[in-house]
């Protein structure tokens, strides 16, 4: 599974509607409204790198009100949940 973090600039007065449109797309697992340079952050999960082209420039960028995107492809996942699970193997609590 390939995960891409997509930073999205939008028309500020349409953030909720744009976020809902993006969240409804296949392969988009989550959309967050955020502070800072970008208005939204979307997590896109696909099976192949080629699929990113279908989702990001092919769908997200074409939604009315999306002004631009900046995409970061994840190499590896680290999370507190995963670390806790790994250290708990074989231990009874």
From TrEMBL:
<dbReference type="InterPro" id="IPR011008">
    <property type="entry name" value="Dimeric_a/b-barrel"/>
</dbReference>
<protein>
    <submittedName>
        <fullName>Lrp/AsnC ligand binding domain-containing protein</fullName>
    </submittedName>
</protein>
<dbReference type="InterPro" id="IPR019887">
    <property type="entry name" value="Tscrpt_reg_AsnC/Lrp_C"/>
</dbReference>
<dbReference type="Pfam" id="PF01037">
    <property type="entry name" value="AsnC_trans_reg"/>
</dbReference>
<feature type="domain" description="Transcription regulator AsnC/Lrp ligand binding">
    <location>
        <begin position="6"/>
        <end position="77"/>
    </location>
</feature>
């Amino acid at each position: 599974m390939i995960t891409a973090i997509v930073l999205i600039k939008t028309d500020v007065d349409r953030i909720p509607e744009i976020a809902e449109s993006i969240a409804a797309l296949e392969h988009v697992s989550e959309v967050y409204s955020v502070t800072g340079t970008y208005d939204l952050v979307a997590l896109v999960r696909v099976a192949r790198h080629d699929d990113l082209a279908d989702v990001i420039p092919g769908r997200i960028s074409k939604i009315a009100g999306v002004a631009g995107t900046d995409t970061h492809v994840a190499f590896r996942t680290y999370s507190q949940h995963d670390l806790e699970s790994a250290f708990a193997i074989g231990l009874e609590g």
